[in-house]
Amino acid sequence: MSQGTPKKRNPFIDTSFLIFAALALVAGAVCYSRGKDVFYEGINSSLSLFLDITPRLSAAFLMAGFVEVLVPKDLITKWMGEKSGTKGIVIATVAGVVTPGGPMISFPLIAALYRLGADFGPLVGYLTSWELMGIQRIIVWEIPFMGIRFAVLRFAVSLLLPIIAAFTAQRLVSHFGVGSR
Amino acid sequence: MDIPTLIIWVLALILVVVSFLRPGKVYVEGFRKALDYMIIMFPRIFMALLVSGFFSVLIPTDIVASWIGKEAGLKGILVGSFLGGFTPGGPLISFPIAFVLFKSGAGTPPLIAFLTAWSVFAFHRVIAYEIPLVGSRFAAIRIASSLILPPLAGILAAILDAALPLGV
């Protein structure tokens, strides 16, 4: 269900699969009750979507696997840990874009930096950037589903957002304090 | 083969080649992870697409168009932001939803607001990862700092969309 590294799960059936199967059954039944042609139209649109997306997703998953083994995670930690202030925020934004994998990779990294005393600003910038512009999610999910034009447009409008969030977070912290870590 | 597919395949193959050039057996690990992804994800994606296919014939397009269509303007962007903020789950849920809405007449700016809100507020991630690992204070400050991002993304997208008719 998440885009995280899949591990120790039944490869075929788990909760998210069952939820989707149940939803498909209900939606299919509703379609069928509206008439056979409505049902077939639904099946048709699913299948054409699946045929459209499978070649893209296969390549995307291939990429995802290789990005994960090629990007050195300790390098990202080093970048983020040493710098703070405006420079730290800009570096954090770039680091967020290139961090591969799902929340199982980015959050432990954030937690480690947090305990080491990293500023809120860069941490918020990093998380926001990873959430909005993480290159792996764009390649694996956004381009196959929404197309390149949509992905480029969304990436472009997202460029400043992590920096806005990071500076806002720094102002909030200077007002309210960081609390205990 | 269409252009997006071609681009992703080329990028994937470049990475495979790079990992072959690396010392050690990096490529074995890469193939293993890729295979893991495919085995885990394809059955789920098939089901998700089945759901979205049925929904695409059930959802009344005039309602979608009037709430988050191209002509919905700022209202559409706000509605998109709101919907995204309350969409649970990972990309396997949000992207098929965005796709079906797109097919049913939703405009690009509201959908960008939708995906932005889902990305920054994703409460399954906040609950499962952020609060346990970095604490609720951090989560609260981060979320407060991100409140304006989805509408801002939508508005910027509307401006850029009109100014640059990218033909990709």
Portion of residues within helices of chain A = over 70%
Give the oligomeric state of the chains in this entry, treating copies of one chain as homo and distinct chains as hetero: heterodimer
Q: Identify low-pLDDT runs of chain B.
A: none
Mean of residue pLDDT of chain B? 88
| C-alpha geometry of chain B | globular
Structural class of chain A: mainly alpha
Q: Main sheet of chain A, how many strands, which sense, barrel?
A: none
Please report the two chains with the greatest interface, counting residues with C-beta closer than 8 angstroms to the partner's C-beta.
A-B, 95 and 90 residues
The beta-strand count of chain B equals: 0
C-alpha Rg of chain B, in Å? 19 Å
Separation, N- and C-terminal Cα atoms of chain B: 15 Å
- Amino-to-carboxy terminus distance of chain A: 31 Å
**Structure class of chain B:** mainly alpha
Element string of chain A (H = helix, E = strand): HHHHHHHHH
Element-by-element helix/strand order of chain B: HHHHHHHHH
Which range best describes the helical content of chain B: under 10%, 10-25%, 25-40%, 40-55%, 55-70% or over 70%? over 70%
Low-confidence stretches of chain A: 1-8
How many domains make up the coordinates of chain B?
2
Describe this structure in words.
The complex is a heterodimer of chains A (181) and B (168). With 181 residues, chain A is mainly alpha-helical. Chain A has a domain at 69-176. Chain A has helices at residues 15-33, 36-70, 73-82, 85-98, 103-115, 120-133, 135-146, 148-158, 161-176. The two termini of chain B are 15 Å apart. Chain B has 2 domains: 1-58; 60-168, no CATH class. In chain B, 82% of the residues lie in helices and 0% in strands. The mean pLDDT of chain B is 88. Chain B has helices at residues 3-21, 26-58, 61-68, 73-85, 91-103, 108-121, 123-134, 136-146, 149-163.
